[in-house]
Amino acid sequence: MAARTARHPSRLVAEHAGPALDVSLGRRAATIHTPWRSPSSPRQPPVWGEDFEAKLGSPADEAARCPIRPEAERLPAFPYTLLDVFTATPLEGNGLAVIHDADALGEETMLGIARETRLSETTFVQTATAAGADYRNRIFTVAGELPFAGHPSLGTAVAVARQRGLERAQLTQQTGAGLQPVDVELALAATSGRASMLQEPAVFGPEVEAASALAAAGLTAADADAGLSPRVVSTGMANVIAPVADPSALARASFDPSALAALLEPLGATVLYLAWWEPDRRRARARGFFHGGEDPATGSAAGPLLAMLAERRGVSTLEIAQGVEMGRPSRIETAIEGDRVRVGGDVVVLVEGTLRL
Fold this sequence. Notes:
By secondary structure, the protein is an alpha+beta fold. The chain folds into three domains: about 1-75, no CATH class; about 80-195 and about 350-355, Diaminopimelate Epimerase, Chain A, domain 1, CATH 3.10.310; about 205-340, Diaminopimelate Epimerase, Chain A, domain 1. It has helices at about 60-65, 105-115, 150-165, 210-215, 245-250, 255-265, 300-315; strands at about 5, 10-15, 25, 30, 80-85, 95-100, 120-125, 135-140, 145, 170-175, 180-185, 190-200, 205, 230-235, 240-245, 270-280, 285-290, 295, 315-320, 330-335, 340-355. Strand 20 (about 330-335) and strand 21 (about 340-355) form a beta hairpin. The two termini are about 40 Å apart.
């Protein structure tokens, strides 16, 4: 039967309605269920789950009660992917949020979204402006935009490949550091895959005094690897690579934001990367500290670590464990290819949805 509504000073009462219930909210609609029958039968016990229909006034009434942004002023919906990078296990590795089709987003909005996710990085996929690139990858932390980063490059490539229906592809991303090819392998029916990329050719900066480098992580010069001085190295983003002599130093390291800023900012570096390596096994353990705290996996520092070891020790491959102390274990694979370092690992897709602003 048709619905009738009676308006009271402080409430709206719905009479008995038919099988469907549509509550009109101007341009929006929602289905609800009410737990009562009719006000004309107040003594009847409520029948939960029975459908009712109610009209909540005109659009003008609605605008007065709860104004919303006009349709013309609202941004479109954006596809959204949440992933864990450098792991095959959900809720481990380094988390990443990817916002697709983000050409309409300004820098202020992108920074706001990055602060909303509170992840190490959030990326925004835009139309490429450089010849030869498949997309532009804008990488934001809660503090601002980065020219390049490792796990956001791999995770974004996996998210883009899934969105484009590609199971095996080489995609070229455009970042502030240039163009980087990223290889992706995944099964569209599954939620995991692999990705690897060639980072930029290594650029070696100044060596850093061991005492000052390690003090930024609560350690001393005695913890340093005597044969490998800390040094600024970049394969797309400058970081301070600080080898330590014993894995126990990694367990004792701590985050000191003031000391870290005093070390990194004058050097133009982003991360202090502490690493202990096993020469015979081509393995390493690492911890990465940046302005926001500790990073579970730092691909942009893993590349420089191998570049340093290749130059000083002739190492050509290295598997790096990171994030263990944080409860986010990660595994980063690195290898020398020509004058570049290939960095790769597993990627897990956790969420695919829609962001509405």
